[in-house]
Specification:
Helix content is 27%, strand content 26%. The protein is of the alpha+beta class and 393 residues long. It has two domains: 266 residues, Naphthalene 1,2-dioxygenase Alpha Subunit, Chain A, domain 1 (Alpha-Beta Complex), CATH 3.90.380.10; 110 residues, Rieske Iron-sulfur Protein, CATH 2.102.10.10. The strands form five sheets. It has a seven-stranded antiparallel sheet. A five-stranded antiparallel sheet has the order 6-3-4-5-10, with no helix packed on it. It has a three-stranded antiparallel sheet with strand order 2-12-11, with no helix packed on it. The protein is globular, with a radius of gyration of 22 Å. The two termini are 16 Å apart. The model has no long low-confidence stretch (mean pLDDT 95).
């Protein structure tokens, strides 16, 4: 059904491209400027959005083999993700059950055991405590009660989601709202991780606004890739997740029979995963995507984004050189154009000179995104599971 839905969407975009139209939001939205610089609101966003919602912490390509692991800090929570010998992905708080320090210091690697660098307690890939240094001297404890603290995790569509609250009862599948079925069309499970890098940016919402916005492309990016880009956008949503696409992106399909429409063309555009992911398709060095993983920084006016450059196939030497050029350009476009503009925007808004900012009828994606942030700030833990819909809007 997901491929059939892609074809329906392509038909919609072709029709709008032919008519020179787009679907529009009912009205212009005013968002309080203070939403970008209010300290109390920022703390609530970290607590009620990032520490409650499933976060896409890794592509499968980052942990493809049994024994692979990854550590990271996610909004102040130290996380350890492993792939067991059984191929199952698990996630834990990266904190030893003895005194609480991190059990693994390396960012990535492959191993069969994790040995705490403080006192040498040892854990297996399933998080179980399997050895206590000088156990006879230490004393008796229930070893089964002192494994690593597990976190809810789900691997779907070649992507790995984790909830940072170990006691959460939120269904990750419910949160995905069927969007993972659409993302399956990328086929990420067998893709190759070519490169990744981390860049700094403005307030996380200012940064994320840009991923949902095609309106700025021919203006802000006029000296890079934007001069010939349309500023029109169409939006489709699955729960809080959205696809953003220019109507013109499917014009090349108009003369082909539907059964010959390539999936890679049908998957063009930007696929955003709430609250912090953007996936954009490119063809530098072969079919590829840039998966942008955005997190709030330690202060409300900072953020950081890890850019994963994923390629459908292991590139040849020539393809790797082309992909490297593509990725360097994308790094500059985001950091030197998008985020540099966002940092100036953040500074200006924080000065207090504006009461609100605007999202036009042509910026429905941004309107929907801010609506979901507001909704989550107003929703208690017990009501979360009923918040997400399983059908597309």
């Amino acid at each position: 059904m997901s491929k059939a839905r892609l074809i329906e969407i392509a038909k919609e975009t072709i029709a709008h491209a032919n008519a020179g139209t787009i679907e529009q939001a009912p009205s212009v939205l005013k968002v309080p400027a203070s939403n970008y610089y209010d300290e109390d609101r920022f703390e609530r966003e970290v607590r009620q959005v990032f520490r409650r919602m499933p976060l896409l912490l890794a592509p499968t390509a980052e942990l493809p083999a049994p024994g692979d692991f990854k550590t990271m800090d996610a909004v102040g929570v130290p996380v350890l993700i492993t792939r067991g010998k059984d191929g199952t992905v698990r996630a834990f708080i990266n904190s030893c059950s003895h005194r609480g320090t991190s059990v693994e210091l390396r960012e990535t690697g492959n191993c069969s055991r994790f040995v705490c660098p403080y006192h040498g307690w040892t854990f297996d890939l399933k998080g179980s405590l399997v050895a206590i240094a000088s156990k006879k001297d230490f004393g008796e404890i229930d070893v089964s009660a002192y494994g690593l603290e597990p976190l809810p995790v789900l691997e779907k569509a070649g992507l790995i989601w984790v909830i940072l609250d170990s006691k959460s009862t939120l269904s990750i599948e419910s949160f995905l709202s069927g969007y993972d079925q659409m993302l399956e069309n990328f086929g990420f499970k067998g893709w190759h991780l070519f490169q990744k890098r981390t860049i700094r940016g403005p307030n996380w919402k200012i940064a994320y606004d840009g991923y949902l916005d095609l309106y700025h492309l021919p203006v802000l990016h006029k000296n890079t890739f934007g001069p010939d880009m349309s500023n029109q956008a169409m939006y489709w949503s699955w729960g809080p997740h959205q696809r953003v696409l220019s109507p013109s992106r499917h014009e090349s399909l108009a003369g082909l029979p539907e059964d010959q429409w390539p999936t890679d063309i049908l998957m063009t555009g930007v696929w955003t995963v709430f609250p912090h992911i953007s996936i954009a398709s490119f063809w530098g060095g072969g079919r590829s995507v840039m998966l942008s993983q955005l997190f709030p920084g330690e202060t409300l006016d900072t953020s950081f984004t890890t850019q994963y450059y994923l390629m459908e196939k292991q590139p040849t030497e020539a393809q790797a050189l082309e992909a490297e050029k593509q990725f360097k350009l994308l790094e500059y476009v985001v950091e030197g154009e998008d985020y540099a503009t966002g940092i100036r925007q953040q500074k200006a808004l924080k000065s207090g000179g504006r009461d609100h900012v605007l999202f036009g009828r042509n910026e429905g994606g941004g309107q929907r995104f801010h609506g979901w942030v507001d909704k989550l700030l107003a929703t208690d833990d017990k009501s979360l599971n009923g918040l997400f819909e399983t059908t597309e809007n």
